[in-house]
Amino acid sequence: MKRFFRRGKGKGIEYIFLFFAFASIFFLGGIVFVLFRAGLPILRTVTLGEFILGRYWRPLFFEPPAYGIFPIILGSLWVTLGAMCIAIPLGVGAAIYIAEVASPRLKEILKPVMELFGAIPSVVYGFFGVVAFAPLIMRLFDLPIGLTALSASILLGLMALPTIVTVSEDVISSVPALYKEASYALGATKLETTLKVVLPAAFPGIVTAIILGMGRAIGETMVVMMVAGGSPVIPRSFLQPVRPMTATIGLEMGEAASGSPHMHALFGIGCVLFAMTLLFSIIAERFSSRFRRGVGM
Amino acid sequence: MMKKLSGSVLVALVGLVLGVIFPSQARAERLVIQGSTTVFPIAVATAEAFMRENPGADISVRGGGSGGGIRALVEGGRIIAQSSREMRHKEKISMRAAGREPVEHIIALDGMAIIVHPDNPVQNLTMEQIRDIYAGRITNWREVGGTPGRIVIVSRDVGSGTFGAFVDIVMEGEAIHPGAIFQASSGALVEAVAGSPAAIGYVGMGFLDERIKAIEVNGVYPTRENVVGGEYPISRPLFYYTAGEPRGLAKRYIDFVLSPSGQRIVAQQGFVPVR
Prior knowledge:
Chain A is mostly helical. Chain A has two domains: about 1-45; about 50-295, MetI-like fold (Orthogonal Bundle), CATH 1.10.3720. Chain A is built from twelve helices and two strands; from the N terminus they run H-H-H-E-E-H-H-H-H-H-H-H-H-H. Chain A has helices at about 1-5, 10-40, 50-55, 70-100, 105-120, 120-140, 150-175, 175-185, 190-220, 220-225, 245-250, 260-295, and strands at about 55-60, 65. In chain A, helix 6 (about 120-140) packs across helix 7 (about 150-175). Chain B contains eleven helices and ten strands. The longest helix of chain B has 20 residues, at about 1-20.
């Protein structure tokens, strides 16, 4: 044992980490396999078109049951879109401020606070949403009830904020000083340099940050379960309740009989969600490699 | 030195693992009750009382919904499944296929109250009006004698036993309008109705409190007497399901729930005794 470590210290540790790396790939592969094995059988009950584009979600108690998840997919996209409308300007703005404007002392306060913000459990956001935020939205917009897509969007936006701020800030900070110095040398002001040199250079990285934030928002379950209202209707306004994919799975998984079309449909929703987040990740990866090439990293 | 230490660590680990695998050997009898969140308060209160009288017994109560409890029972769990709906035909078939006979025990009745915000002037709705509201045909409180304004339908989520019972009894199988707000638990539903003067919802009588108002259905208020007498139209039995006739601790516990002192606890929890 001792000899193994002394002689091949590097090799031994390398193997250990190789094992860890493959273990995570193995588990991920297993999860994807189980997800699709449990989800695909829904296509024995309905066609892919009926499943994805069907307008009615009535999985239980009604004959015949309806397994259309179109309103549910739109519900997810709707709250994610809303969340991004809030998180992108706030997040990128905050990142620019922290990276370019804030004094080092302020920066040392703001960054950890932002990271702490990201560590708040989602159920806390949800609870805050139910007791404080939804009633506020209700009064503000004179609505009959505060459980709406808007309430969920704003909370999801706040939750995606730490991801967007911290990743964008890292990206902006890692734009080579050379670029800025060249810009200043040509007589550009700080504002001009930030807007015309730093931001374009950092742009692909910021896109990565935004897409990571989107992934966070679309995958969030607790908050949308508690605040979005849960109505499986095609959303027409932000002031109406919606039922995102994650909420549907979370609400119904406990009640679906194993092996039933309902259970397969819920896993089918999981497959669709997986495909969407995978797409997000691929796009994010593309942009981030473009950023690294762009700044010569 | 190193060897000695790792030896004792090994012994401790083995002990720990054995303790985790065979915990029941050391203790007395154990029983798990799992399922409906509606029946949950009855199960908790009766289990506590039972364990006070029988210190050797260890009963734990879990939620998870009627479907979850029944599923656990069907899949071979050694539990009592608590349910706010009758076991479905399919579920019984798959349980019998596994060689286990589901046995039903009705432990209480539950009147389902139709609730509105306390500021809502509406005092009474007929079954037809409630059905029309939940189907989306009546959309304004003015149409049922209330203050003009949109009706916000609040429903339990599609999986819950309460939803199933409501659809059976009130909707007679008709679909609830998809624009309704769907809530994951009775508590969340009460919260939503308490927060919105335009809302209407339904919960088991055990969940009534001063923040919401129960209304009359067909002119009958949901009281224990009206449920027992059958005048109140929306009521349902609450069930325990066991695999085969209960034996041992399960039998003694269920007998206790159905005894006068058990049924007194049922009443204290806001439900209607069956004996």
